[in-house]
């Protein structure tokens, strides 16, 4: 069983960034602008766009509450406003989507959500 923090960092955060990066690029921002606003590197943005990272983004897109939280953050980032990614992550975790990332492992991740 993976600890909650490992699932969040490796799976959830990566998927969130992938969704946000795609949306920002679709709105006409450059990879460099996306990288600056997400506080990541341009090569990381390239990996998200190429699906090297954030491969499980569809799990978040399929969850209405998670998608709404990500869309709200994306809108603010496109406008150049700051976003507290920890707050977004908490909202996404509260949507119950973490269970989809466990891949059948016996775990208690959903019980550990703060």
Write up what this structure looks like.
By secondary structure, the chain is mainly alpha-helical. The chain has one domain. It is 68% helix and 0% strand. The protein is built from eight helices and no strands. It has helices at 4-26, 31-38, 42-49, 57-61, 64-78, 85-94, 98-101, 109-112. Helix 2 (31-38) packs across helix 3 (42-49) and helix 5 runs antiparallel to helix 6 (85-94). The longest helix is centred in the N-terminal third of the chain and has 23 residues, at 4-26. The model has no long low-confidence stretch (mean pLDDT 86).
Protein traits:
single chain; 114 residues; mainly alpha
Main sheet characteristics: none
Structural class, judged by helices and strands?
Answer: mainly alpha
Count of alpha/pi helices? 8
| Backbone shape | globular
The poorly predicted ranges are none
Order of SSEs, N→C? HHHHHHHH
- Mean pLDDT, to the nearest integer, reads 86
Oligomer kind? single chain
Number of separate strands: 0
The domain tally reads 1
What is this entry, summarized?
The protein is mainly alpha-helical and 114 residues long.
List the helices and strands and how they pair.
Elements lengths: L3 H23 L4 H8 L3 H8 L7 H5 L2 H15 L6 H10 L3 H4 L7 H4 L2
